[in-house]
Amino acid sequence: MAYEIEQRFEHIGTEILEASRNALYINMRYLDVALSGLAWEMTTDISRIGTDGLRLLYEPHYLADLYRKHPMLVNRVYLHIIFHCVFRHILRPCPKDQKRWHLACDVAVESLIDGMHHRSIRMSVSPLRKSLYQELRKELKVLTAEGIYKSLTKRTLTWLEMEAAKKQFVVDDHVFWDSEQEDQKDGD
């Protein structure tokens, strides 16, 4: 019985992710290889959705709830993860302040997605996001994770400001990035 339920969850997750990939592909054919580059795997090791660079790992309840809220949200998180892979955020050595680095990667990816005007990912940009993008563009020509990280380290952000920024920009779980970096350090 438990196996059948697990199989059903996996089937639903696959259907949701296939629909998302197809919606993104229709508008962004230039990303065809990237969009189909990750295998999908259901897991309960994380509370959201994330990647290790090879697999898109998802918690089934989180994915179903996100889809129920709006399928466009699944499209955005899928593209968010794809951009982390395309820009190799996962493989870059993490600077001293890991929390700011992960936030910088998320801000860079979300700024790119917010600048795209495809129906499958379009949503209104919050005032907090607009304000941060404007501040960053005063310093940076291109919003890269490295540039955003440098900018964030210059600022003294309170715990509340960091939490507010995380609430705005963090949509995936980066827990698998750390293990990848540990493997690189060990030479594996």
Describe this structure in words.
By secondary structure, the protein is mainly alpha-helical. Strands 1-3-2 form a 3-stranded mixed sheet, with helices on both faces. The radius of gyration is 17 Å and the shape is globular. It has helices at 2-27, 32-35, 60-69, 71-86, 98-114, 127-139, 145-154, 159-169, 175-186; strands spanning 39-42, 49-51, 55-58. A hairpin with a 3-residue loop joins strand 2 (49-51) and strand 3 (55-58).
**Could you give the order of the helices and strands?**
HHEEEHHHHHHH
User: Whole-number average pLDDT?
Assistant: 91
Report the β-strand fraction as a percent range.
5-15%
**Low-confidence sequence ranges:** 179-188
Across the major sheet, the strand order is 1-3-2
